[in-house]
Amino acid sequence: MSTTSPPPSPPSSHPSPSASTSSSNEDQLPTPRAPTHQTTITLTEDYFAPPLPPRPSLEVTTSNAFLSVHSATSSGASTPGLQAKPTTAISLPEGVHAQQQDAVVSGNGSITGAPSFSDSVSVKSLVPTLSAGDNDVESMLGEILEEEGEEGGFLKARRDILDSAGGGVGGSAGIEVEFEDDGWDESSDEEGLGEEELVARWRAKRKHFFILSSAGKPIYSRHGDESVLSGYMGVIQAIISFFQDDNDTLKGFSAGKHRFAIAASGPLYLVAISSMGESDSQLRAQLDALYTQVLSTLTLSQLNKIFAQRGNFDLRRLLGGTEVFLDGLSDAMTLGSPQVLLSALECVKMRKAHRENINSILLKHRSPNLLYGLVIADGRMVSVLRPKRHSLHPADLQLLFSMLFNASTFRDGGEHWTPICLPKFNSKGFLHAYIHFFRKEVAVVLISADKDAFFEMREMKGVVVEQLEKAGSIKIIEEAVSKGRYTTTDVLSSGTAIRHFLYRSKNNVQFTMPSFEPHFYTVIARRRLMNLYQRLHAAVHAKNAHLKVHHCIRNSSVSLSWVTPTFELYCVAAAGANRTALAKSATAIAAWVKREEERLFVIGGVASSPFLFYY
Amino acid sequence: MASRDEAPKLSSSVKLVLLGEAAVGKSSLVLRFVNDDFQENKEPTIGAAFLTQKCTLPTRTIKFEIWDTAGQERFASLAPMYYRNAQTALVVYDITKPTSLIKAKHWVSELQRQASPGIVIALVGNKLDLAAPVLADDDGGEEGGDAMNGGNRAVLTAEAKAYADEEGLLFYETSAKTGENVQGVFEAIANAIPESTLKPRAGAGGFAGGSGRAGAGSGGGDAGAAGMAVNLEDGVRAKEGCAC
Ligand SMILES: Nc1nc2c(ncn2[C@@H]2O[C@H](COP(=O)(O)OP(=O)(O)OP(=O)(O)O)[C@@H](O)[C@H]2O)c(=O)[nH]1
Ligand SMILES: [Mg+2]
């Protein structure tokens, strides 16, 4: 509405934490008319508060302490991610602060404080393979260094994440190319490269995921082949067990700009190494997604049984063929996945009546052995059918989606019948999924507990598709898909400074967002946007952070996070956007979503059993 | 050709299952047979895919209901579900990979022990295009290792053929990539199905048989799965009966 009005006062570009409590209304949608935006706490801060000296962190890389046992701050580098400086500690209290101080956080505290850790040299000596010449480290860190440079006011040219209004994508195109090849995508073929080169390339990745057995056997790695990896796996296993010997659990530590997060899940270790600035809990959520993927293939009971029988079993034998799913998931999480970040799924937007039509067709023709029935299009939900007694956990659904869309094997137009474990439903056994992409982007998935139910499910699908066709629903779905997501200007006035937003409905465990176009249509721009979201998300979810509204100004963007008991909203606006206008836009978005709720989400539940339409 | 659909001709559905080690080209054979297509980088099958294809012969029309199973080790315990009541099986190996023939032999003996007695089994050596261009005598006469010069063939035609004859299997070498012999295999099978087992064309009969069929003899299955195969049959008897 009135979002385009000129800013009454220029946005402050310096950290000026201001806390104002107005605890009323936090639950309600402030109306656009509200004289001021209603916030419990308003925090204006620049993440990287004091401008950094030019590339300060190079000092770290040249010092030999690759595995830094000092606090990140003392070495003069601010760790990537959410780093509140002491001045902002009021609103980003203890939890965040502590995390910043301890480079190595173990169950019982920091590595520096751990009494048993008398021989820091020996730990370092385990790591020299990880450490490297300056070049290597710089290539590992390049991305973040540059990004921090940007935060600190350097490399102003790199505005590709958010070109200020009208500036257009054209201007940044040249810059993007420069980063195209440092990236996460695996286009370059590595055949015929020498080992050194392979190792260098491997190191240059922004993010690594490993899975290994507790005996240290490699199970999965996103990047790099066996020859490069086996040594590292050993090191990781040694570090983890070093702590375990002391009955301590190593959860994460920092090495240079890289954050290591470790999860011991069942008989497996999962490790994430990231230079992208995620919080530990975010990295842990990513590891959990990978673990869930492994479980879906094997079930927890099988996994435990296998390793109980043979501790050094080579699990790759049994995971053969699922690398595509793990790779797809890893890449999605490197690019930045709203699904994983928000633990929620997205729906295809359509009229309530249209969705109800589809729901009732599914319901009417459901066959006796059906457990869950889904209509899915373009990686999003259209309709979900579940029995009253069984909820459907978003993590399980996400797993299913990642299987369907991260590999082409199910999208060949054929019919598939495959065992799948949905760990949140039951980690001990398999369900069986009938999967048919009866249109290029549209699938029916029917899940049964009966392994012999294929033909029953197939028959149901036949009837359902026929009825959907008759009702015109398929056409509606396909149109909705081809139209793509709505744009910010569909939601707000056409001159809006808002470039993108993520809205998560807590009750529905679903999220909605506008199209990434036109502002974030390149992979790089999108990754940066997601990186920003991830930082915003970390800020409002930090332990002890009681933020309700979080306002963040950077050179390239202005953003706002808003958390209420019913939703989370993250909006990103062009640099220089006015704060009041931003708050008004956020309010308008929330009101719009409320109005469109039944089109945006699959609704069907009471708060305690969030998912979905049920029978 | 036979413009009007078969009046006197025998027409029937036949359940066919493909078995064999991972990546030997089972899905590729089916893709060639059903869509006359080939993909250089076909992704591994997960679970099983179900396809149908008609095969019209002078004397009969057969509608194949094809189960293309996953060759990955962990799916081995599911196989009985697919070959149970199958009238015919294609056991596929890769002529460039000797271990895949060993695996194929395991499948053959499992089928002989546990599948329907009358099952028609064809042994298929795939990826014929990767064999050395054998110039002269193409009917079996491999003079020692000579014929292998320059090619990737690692399983001699004669060896596999001898084994097939011994076990009473149909035998073909194929290339899903070039299409060579693919149609031939399916036609040969269609011809080989004994008339007595051809049911008049009914709908697909579930995993055939009633519903008491469940477990029976499946679990242990073939030891070829190396004892560590995942038991995918640990179904979820969904808590307190899910299908409410
Ligand atoms: N050169 C050549 N390659 C083939 C042929 N058939 C299959 N391939 C290739 O071999 C690989 C595996 O083929 P698939 O058809 O997926 O093998 P599969 O037996 O179905 O494998 P699973 O589903 O894992 O059991 C693919 O990359 C195919 O392109 C062939 O006749 N010649
Ligand atoms: Mg296959």
Automatic annotation (TrEMBL), chain A:
Domain FUZ/MON1/HPS1 third Longin: 498-597
Signal peptide start-end: none
Localization in the cell: Endosome, Multivesicular body membrane; Prevacuolar compartment membrane; Vacuole membrane
GO CC terms: fungal-type vacuole membrane; Mon1-Ccz1 complex; multivesicular body membrane
Region (Disordered): 1-56
Topology with respect to the bilayer: Peripheral membrane protein
Domain FUZ/MON1/HPS1 first Longin: 207-329
InterPro entries: FUZ/MON1/HPS1_longin_1, FUZ/MON1/HPS1_longin_2, FUZ/MON1/HPS1_longin_3, Mon1
Family of the protein in this entry: Belongs to the MON1/SAND family.
PANTHER family the record matches: SAND PROTEIN-RELATED, VACUOLAR FUSION PROTEIN MON1 HOMOLOG
Protein name: Vacuolar fusion protein MON1
Classification lineage: Eukaryota, Fungi, Dikarya, Ascomycota, Pezizomycotina
Automatic annotation (TrEMBL), chain B:
GO molecular function list: GTP binding; GTPase activity
Pfam families per the UniProt record, alphabetical: Ras
SMART domains named among the record's database cross-references: RAB (SM00175), RAN (SM00176), RAS (SM00173), RHO (SM00174)
PROSITE patterns assigned: RAB (PS51419), RAS (PS51421), RHO (PS51420)
Keywords carried by this UniProt record: Nucleotide-binding
Coiled-coil ranges from the UniProt annotation: none
InterPro entries linked to this entry: P-loop_NTPase (IPR027417), Small_GTP-bd (IPR005225), Small_GTPase (IPR001806)
Entries under CDD domains matching the protein: Rab5_related
NCBIfam families linked to this entry: small_GTP
Protein name: Ras-domain-containing protein
